[in-house]
Specification:
The protein is an alpha/beta fold and 218 residues long. The protein is 38% helix and 23% strand. A seven-stranded mixed sheet has the order 3-2-1-4-5-7-6.
């Protein structure tokens, strides 16, 4: 048994190296379902190569993407047609969010790089009355339910990789070039902190090692 597990993990790693797919992009359509059909201003924090920001722009008058990685921001600009109402800036999500209020704020797989309470409070300050905040994040597994959901995601992850790449080798999706770090907070800790900063926030554990948070500003 002790030799089987490493072999299985190695085989999974080799499979996903040949059939990469974006776990975060998997939730983009779900994010859109949480948002109004039309809104004025959107903000995507940790915007990466800009895929979600460009989707938001299909509903918004203007969208601002902000990311701390200059290389990925440059890539986002290159991928965005001039007619799409999106601007990308390099900045820290706590101190360099472009000024003003936003009807929609999104943050995907980036908030675990920030002090959670401070980040949520910052987003709340920039959210317009009646606005919507949507977060897709990662948490450190702790409970039996966390590990069970993670185990269930493994075969689904393989199936999704096969479906999305149609059984063929595909180029690896664009990603951040800045250092990343694993999540250090558990889902319970995140839910407790969110409840203190954003009363009424809805949090759910999700497949593919993610959780979601949705909150509406009064």
């Amino acid at each position: 048994m002790t030799t089987v597990i490493p072999r299985v993990l190695h085989a999974l790693h080799a499979f996903h190296a040949a059939h990469p797919w974006d776990h975060n992009a998997h939730y983009h359509r779900w994010i859109l379902r949480q948002l109004p059909r039309r809104f004025d201003r959107g903000l995507d924090v940790g915007s990466g190569s800009g895929d979600l920001a460009r989707l938001l722009a299909s509903r918004a008058k203007s969208v601002q993407g902000v990311d701390a990685d200059p290389m990925i921001v440059e890539r986002a600009r290159e991928l965005t047609p001039p007619a799409v109402p999106v601007s990308f800036t390099v900045g820290d999500a706590l101190t360099e969010i472009p000024p003003g209020s936003y009807d929609v704020i999104t943050c995907v797989a980036a908030i675990h790089h920030l002090p959670l309470a401070d980040a949520l409070d910052r987003f709340r300050q920039h959210l317009s009355p009646g606005g919507t905040l949507v977060i897709v994040g990662v948490a450190r597994p702790q409970s039996f339910g966390d590990h069970l959901l993670g185990a269930a995601a493994i075969p689904l992850n393989v199936a999704m990789a096969w479906i999305k790449t149609k059984g063929r080798r595909a180029p690896r999706p664009a990603s951040m070039t800045a250092p990343t770090r694993p999540a250090c907070m558990t889902f319970s800790d995140i839910a407790r902190t969110a409840g203190n900063v954003l009363p009424g926030a809805r949090l759910r554990r999700r497949l593919f090692w993610r959780y979601t948070l949705v909150w509406h500003q009064a």
